[in-house]
Amino acid sequence: MDLRQLEYFVAVAEERNFTRAAERVHISQSGVSAQIRQLERELGAELFDRSARAVTLTVAGKAALEHARVALAAAEAVARAVGEVAELIRGRLTVGMVVGCTVTPLFDALAAFHRAHPGVEISLLEDNSEQLVEGVRDGTVDLALVGTAATPEGLDALTIVSEPLVVAVPAGHPLTTLRRITLRDLISHPIVCMPTGTGLRTVFDQACAAQGLRPVITFQASAADAIADLAARGLAVAILSDSMAARYRDRLTALTIDDVTTPALLALIWRSTHNPAVRELLAFSRRAFAKPV
Q1: 0.85 exceeded by the pTM?
Q2: Is beta strand 91-98 parallel, antiparallel or unpaired with respect to 120-127?
């Protein structure tokens, strides 16, 4: 027996009519009948009772039907798996990354994916988080690492980092004398922060807006190094995430902002997709980010 015979058998069983089954599988009725007869000879039993107007299954036919369906589903799964691998042999992926954010596990994931699928062309795009989110939504970006205040609506996400904002100041700064620091304490000082469109800035702006505060951002920089350098020189107080500020503890003191409760998120985002290359890169990314730092 072969898969074609099983396909015709299932079609006749479900349609209960040789003519309709033939239309469904796009061959002549005589062709379907001949293949079913051949299958019955090979099995040594009749599968259909043809005596009535509507074709019905015999006891043997009923016993065979579910197994035939399983065999056809398995064959479909094999074809689908091979097709997905074939799609991965050639293709293109656009990966987005928020400006100024060097995240080693993402590079590890890209390298591992490239070794496994060297035929897939990978391009890396840097932009602010808002633009990357829109890129994922409109399909120009397949997967992006963004800073955000919450998972973007309509997209899937894997949170990599969730941590509070802090204010970072040099030694001797007046803020270091306060027992408790609030946003109102900050806005009397010049502020250096990431630009609009970044996740960290979004969290800060939303926290200020919730209290009706309008801080003056004296300096903006996309790179944490630049923000830290400006703060270390006493030009402004720096708004950073906790882990960012920790990198500059030799020059800056990180202070908790008590009334900013929403964490800044660093997340991989993507649109629900059947693209096998995106699913494969996600698998590599999950493994890379799961490794202890």
Answers
A1: no
A2: parallel
